[in-house]
Amino acid sequence: MNFGPFDPQKFNDILLEFIVVFGPKLLGAILIFIIGSYLITVASNLIKKALNKGSFDPSLKSFLTSLTRFALFIMLFITVLNTVGVPMGSALTILGAAGLAIGLALQGSLSNFAGGVLILAFKPFRIGDVIEAQNEIGTVQKIDILHTRLFTADNREVIMPNGALANSNIINITANPTRRVALAVGISYDSDIKLARKVIVDTLSKDSRVLKEEGVQVVLTELADSSLNLSVRVWVKAEDFWDMTFEGLENIKEALDAASIEIPFPQRDMHMKQ
Fold this sequence. Notes:
Helix content is about 50%, strand content about 20%. By secondary structure, it is an alpha+beta fold. It folds into 3 domains: about 15-105, Helix Hairpins (Orthogonal Bundle); about 125-170, Roll (SH3 type barrels); about 180-260, Alpha-Beta Plaits (2-Layer Sandwich). A 5-stranded antiparallel β-sheet has the order 4-3-2-1-5. It has a 3-stranded antiparallel β-sheet with strand order 6-8-7, covered by helices on one side.
């Protein structure tokens, strides 16, 4: 195809006309975007402060702030397109088509968004709760539009998609104020079960973390190969669970040693036949 010889003058005239006609609109769109972005940041901070003053759930505050910011940027995008010269109807059509394409490409993200809405609506957990999900245990730090963030006991950050989280089993460890500690203790077959029970009950009853109204329960659970297995059960406040688990077992060991009650190890008797 022959376009003819290049005419610098004609090219300059076209470029000048483009700058005169389209330049102010483009400059205005850029200014609107810059100012709009700043105002959205200010508005987001104001909304966050307003929510903090109210008695809203912390997880709902984070979600509403993120959702509001997203909606404001959509409105800013439409305004910028309209300023450039794209009619409002065409801008909405473009936005709808782009939304459809993005929705098809990001089906997983839409699933995560729906999961976030379900989590906030039904509240299986809140910010500050310790949960077990997706083979991870941690404290909920933040619930975003698409993800939930946990901090584990060793200070690792775990980011879970809301879609998978909303459709999986969740154990809310701190949902109730109290928890039951169950300790397994083995004593020898030669030991007196009643004496062992009394020693364990007396030892744990002195611990201030044990809830007195629930008491200490010691039951025989198994006649094992090398030991009589006892299950020691006490109720404590949720925040005392791990300390009681570790220190309680240590205190039981020391008390049984002092009472000369043997804690056996696996062993096998052999009988030789001539």
